[in-house]
Protein: Myosin-IA
Amino acid sequence: DIYGFEVFEQNSFEQFCINYCNEKLQQVFIDLVLRQEQEEYKKEGIAWQEIKYFNNQVICDLVEKPHQGVIAIMDEACLNVGKVNDEMLLEAMDSKLSNHKHYSSRQVNTLDKDLKHKTQFKILHYAGDVVYNIYGFLEKNKDTLFQDFKRLLYSSKNPIIRDMWPEGALDIKSTTKRPVTAGSAFKTSMIALVKTLNSKMPYYVRCIKPNENKAPVGIDYKRVVHQVSYLGLLENVRVRRAGFAHRQPYSRFLKRYKMISGFTWPNYKCSDKEATRALIDENNFSNDVKYGITKLFIRSPQTLFALEKMRAELIPAIVILLQKQWRGAICRAKFRKMKAAYFIIKFYRRHKIRTYLKSVLEAHRTCEMNMHHKESIIWPQTNFAVRQLEPSLRYIYKRWKAYKLLSPYPRSEWPQLRCKIYAASLLWGKRPSWGAQRMWRGDYLSSPTENTENANYTVALNNLKNSDRFNQVLFSSFIYKMNRYNKCADRAILITDWAVYKLDLKNFKPMKKGMPIQEVTGMSVSPGQDQLVVIHSNRGNDFVVTLKPTTDINEDRIGELLGVISTRYFQLRNSELPVNVSNKFNCMLGKKSRMLRVEVNPQTSTASFRKDDNGGIVYIIPPNVAVHPFIKA
Structure:
């Protein structure tokens, strides 16, 4: 991150160290990218246009040069006996650096009125001029943490404190020198960093700061041009454009690519340079290369890619030529052993599969003979040969058994059977009658015998389908409902493949927006033959209704309603819908929990709702639809 160069209104020792760090990194960049690039071309005798660039080694020497650099002068001032202040340090710097063209102060250049006397000095960095305030340099450069204090902390009985000061473990005789100053320590670290970078191949990420306000869309062109200039990007581009994409010693080049030419493969009787020239000329790459003293220079990556492609096409044949005899002998011997083992395994596996299939067919034949008992096949014990086959056989058997069970019924009734199976799993043994024996028609309101206003219903249904975009009507019926204000009214219920609607009987329009089936949290019904059903939801206002068939008042539609909703709920959420069958259960009306209980009244002939003394709801039914005895239900 090279734009970490810091220039503030008040620049102190910290900014001095940071800017010195950036100078060193820029010097590494110059050495690795610019200077080495051009020096290599000169060394190899390649025609080259000299590209001028600013070498900031002189600034690095100004800071770090032994005995004469700024850091050396600061260290000398810190080690002097007596009282030495920052002004004296500035005087020493002015005395020793007055002739340096990248250093300036008010005493060195009396005409520079921008610098304060005995307070500021200026260094002409590669990124621009920076004025530093001398006050605080000596204090920040000193390291007053002496070795005896480190040994004291290291001898602590607290293991955490002891681990924090490993320097205290050094012998007193080996640590007689004063602590290294902060500037010297920073310089040593930078030298080590540069040494590490020089041993690697660093990749630079140049960060350009577009503006000083951190604004998302704002470019300070003067600021950007300044950064492009001092980061050396222009010189870098010039060097790259004028240079070569790839270079390699002739010997290394031939070791990799000599199989491409018949002149160089497998051996050649001339120098490496002549062999390389013959290979390049044979493949018509002469216009894109230059021949150095010890290296071949390739200008465009396309030439290198072409060489790699030709090499890649020839390598497999060469490898096969070297390997085929030995590998062939090994593979033939291994194949003979594997073939013998394969025949043994194959015949034994066939024997085990035949034995297992014979047992399965025998069990299947017995099951088919007893099909009227709906018995399931008893599967024989599996073995290693049929472990992968058995799941498929079980799946085929389940499909066959399901087909046998459903074959007596027309395919058009299969969706109805699915709903009846769901209803049976929810109500079997809990409710004496739930309409299993009759045909489930679903959309009862569309029937003229059920609904004399079926034409209005059809129009309203089409309008609702256009607005809510559902596909199918699963159930509809007249209902008698109770609301949160304890008021009862005749309504109609409509269940589609998407939601549950409450309809007004005047025009069959939804009284509210439909409640999605995915929001249904459960259903509650009574164990009798009455048509009470509560559809619970997470909205805090449940549907408390009783179904009202008009063609046959004794027709039980509770099972059909449960089957339709539970089937669709499972399809949407892949989980079972909770269903409660009881004479007493809680429901939510107006976001308040209320107890609903079923009560038999011999004096009534029709079911009705009323409010009890405790704020709950009583559903009154005649004895002919109650469970007998009612109390035990």
User: Anything to note?
Assistant: Confidence is low (pLDDT under 50) at residues 629-633. The longest strand covers residues 473-482. Residues 575 and 628 are 34 Å apart (CA to CA).
